[in-house]
Design brief:
It is a single chain. Helix content is 50%, strand content 16%. By secondary structure, the protein is α+β, with helices and mostly antiparallel strands. Strand 1 and strand 2 form a beta hairpin. Helix 2 runs antiparallel to helix 3. The chain starts with a strand and ends with a helix.
Amino acid sequence: MTQFRDKAGNIWEGDGPGHMQVVNSADESVVGLRRERWEADYDYGPMTEVNPHADAATSGAIRVELALVFDELAKEVWSPYNYSGVDDEIRSTVSSIFEEKARKLREAAE
């Protein structure tokens, strides 16, 4: 079934002739919302068709790029210019958190 994404990122599917329903949203209170097609487009649009293959590729690329940002942040924690006076144990903890986030993002991108 064809899915559409609205401007807020909600995913809609056709639900009978001329109707649409939210099937996925970060806001759980919106899931299940049903509107006529024109209402959904007017209130929540513009609607763009979801291409699962393109979305997966884009999502993977974004995860890899974000992992690189976390790698840089993990290194930056040890910079004497930005965090002077911060205890080494705290720096180590923060660096480990960034490294773990980067690792998880890379795994999710595979």
